[in-house]
Design a protein that fits this description.
- This protein is α/β, with parallel strands linked by helices and 384 residues long.
- It has 2 domains: 230 residues, 3-Layer(aba) Sandwich (Rossmann fold), CATH 3.40.50; 134 residues, Response regulator (Rossmann fold), CATH 3.40.50.
- It has 11 helices and 16 strands.
- The strands form 5 sheets. A 5-stranded parallel beta sheet has the order 4-3-5-6-7, sandwiched between helices. It has a 4-stranded parallel beta sheet with strand order 9-8-10-11. It has a 3-stranded antiparallel beta sheet with strand order 12-15-16.
- Strand 8, helix 5 and strand 9 form a beta-alpha-beta unit.
- The protein is globular and about 65 Å long.
Length: 384
């Protein structure tokens, strides 16, 4: 299916003749800046994000660009380093003078860059997950993934529906895992769920048997929830199976990709997690408004790159589409006009969910945008 199906008709406002811009050949490009973790420990995030941005910037330009101007993607690889993310963000706003930034693979990188981006008054759409990115609201900062607070709410509500009231929590000590732990503890208290075991692991740990043994030995634990990303959740999953723990097992949206299944292997069977419907597009009802968007993105990405799609690339897709929509609605690249347009986007159906932004909500999603998936025979299955 053509990627053109994913774009609004506004993208066709400028006419394309013989593959070049006519009347706009000399038009100044609209600069889309990005810093992503394309290599390093978070490459499973940044690599599909960059590939997504590259293919859709090319596609948009083939259709005439935006406001009759081509898009120019300016990219830096922060290698998963928060200090590098801050330095590259500084370069984007001070040297490259980009019109908008769509990037920031990790919470740590995003939060390191956010203050100087705010100071520069540059619209910024982050691709990272922690709720702290947009809560409290920052004037110039937006984001596309659901927050860790939403993930905690969705998982704990799903547990309640199974009659679970006491859980073991295991989480990473990095920015994503630490924030996820905090949100899970707060949400559990709100929902009347008791966390009877609360253990953590370092991103550098290669075995979590000790932490999981403590959970296994607590007879009150009725289910286990792991909040983390990277290779660590796969280690937790394998250790979980090795210890023979048979309690219901949940992961966060930080592992919603086929690469996690490759790392975890058969040990992943039976676990559940909140994710966008991208991993199970054919399971969506025919009348679900996300179905055609999700299917088209999946088909286009996999045809272009000959690899499985991931939810992380979808965050970049939604970020770019929101950026383009805001520029079109603003009718210019004036920073304040674009920022205001972003803040007022309503009803945008993306791959991740349907976005309804507001001055009080720079994420625009709710917990219901998550679907609950289960790993069955090494593949994803829609549960709820």
């Amino acid at each position: 299916m053509s990627t053109k199906l994913l774009r609004r008709t506004g993208f066709l406002a400028a006419t394309l003749v013989a593959g070049v811009f006519t009347g706009a050949q000399a038009a100044e490009p609209i600069k889309i800046g990005t810093f992503l973790s394309v290599t390093g420990p978070a490459s499973f995030l940044g690599d599909p994000e960059l590939k997504t941005l590259q293919m859709y910037v090319e596609d948009i330009n083939e259709d005439g660009g935006v406001l009759g101007r081509p898009l120019e993607l300016i990219h830096y690889d922060d290698e998963g380093s928060a200090s590098s993310a801050r330095n590259y963000a500084s370069r984007l706003v001070r040297s490259d003078r980009v019109d908008i930034i769509v990037g920031g693979s990790t919470t740590g990188g995003t939060m390191a860059a956010a203050p100087l981006i705010e100071q520069s008054r540059t619209p910024f759409i982050s691709l990272a997950g922690a709720v702290v990115i947009t809560d409290p609201v920052k004037t110039w900062v937006f984001k596309t993934p659901q927050s860790d607070r939403m993930a905690a709410e969705r998982v704990l509500t799903a547990m309640q529906e199974r009659g679970i009231s006491k859980i073991g929590l295991i989480s990473g000590t990095g920015g994503f895992g630490r924030s996820g732990r905090e949100q899970t503890l707060a949400m559990a208290e709100n929902l009347g769920i008791e966390v009877v075991e609360d253990v953590t692991y370092s991103p550098s740990d290669t075995d979590m048997t000790a932490q999981l043994t403590g959970i296994r030995n607590n007879s009150e634990v009725e289910a286990v929830f792991n909040f983390g990303f990277g290779q660590s959740p796969a280690i937790v999953t394998r250790n979980y199976a090795q210890l023979g723990i048979e309690l219901p097992f949940y992961q966060s949206h930080g592992v919603a990709s086929n690469s996690f299944l490759d790392l975890a292997g058969e040990a992943a069977n039976g676990l559940r997690l909140p994710a966008s419907p991208l991993l199970v597009p054919d399971s969506l009802p025919a009348d679900d408004p996300q179905r055609p968007v999700v299917q088209a993105y999946k088909e286009a990405y996999e045809a272009r790159w000959n690899e499985s799609v991931s939810t992380f690339g979808a965050y970049a897709y939604d970020g770019l589409q929101l950026a383009v929509m805001a520029i079109e609605n603003a009718g210019s690249t004036d920073a304040e006009a674009v920022r205001e347009a972003l803040e007022n986007i309503q009803g945008y159906v993306g791959v991740t969910g349907t976005y309804n932004m507001s001055p009080d909500d720079h994420n625009g999603l709710d917990a219901d945008s998550f679907r609950i998936l289960e790993v069955v025979d090494g593949d994803w299955k829609l549960i709820d």
